[in-house]
Design a protein that fits this description.
The protein is of the alpha+beta class. The chain contains two helices and nine strands; from the N terminus they run αβββββββββα. Bound molecules: copper (II) ion (CU).
Length: about 140
């Protein structure tokens, strides 16, 4: 690969990362099945809605907790008892790690939502400068 090609590939990669990071947030599904949240851990962008669905004939809850394993509700969200087929949704607006659990099943049924920071304005400025420099050649 020539240096020019490497530069272009690097630039496209950087652009792709930024594009992926700033893609519009949607809805992510988490199932409650076999006494587990599946997937138990997800990473999302701010403004993403997480939709939990209970897929078994056992009542579960989706309850935010103060820290992983604490089993102490943090008060951010709590679905209450969910029967088979029930759905609970929560929109995550702020970056951070959000641990949650199921009240009836405690430590054996926990999950984590990691909300990534949005691309910083500095990153966007660097991108704009790189694009301007490239088009000037
Ligand atoms: Cu449960």
């Amino acid at each position: 690969m020539t240096i020019a090609a490497a530069r272009v590939a690097c630039f496209i990669g950087f652009f792709g990362l930024l594009a992926a990071a700033s893609a519009p947030a949607g809805v992510i599904n988490v199932n409650m099945q076999d006494f587990l949240f599946s997937p138990a851990e997800i990473t999302i962008e701010p403004q993403t809605v997480v939709r939990w669905t209970n897929l078994e004939f056992i009542d579960h809850t989706v309850t935010s907790q103060t820290s992983p394993g604490s089993l102490v509700p943090s008060g951010l969200f709590d679905s209450g008892n969910m029967a088979f087929g029930d759905v609970f949704e929560f929109r995550f607006t702020q970056p951070g790690d959000y641990s949650y659990f199921c009240i009836p099943h405690g430590s054996s049924m926990q999950g984590m939502v990691r909300v990534t920071p949005e691309p910083s304005s500095l990153a966007l400025l660097i991108l704009a400068a790189l694009a301007a420099r490239r088009s000037a050649r």
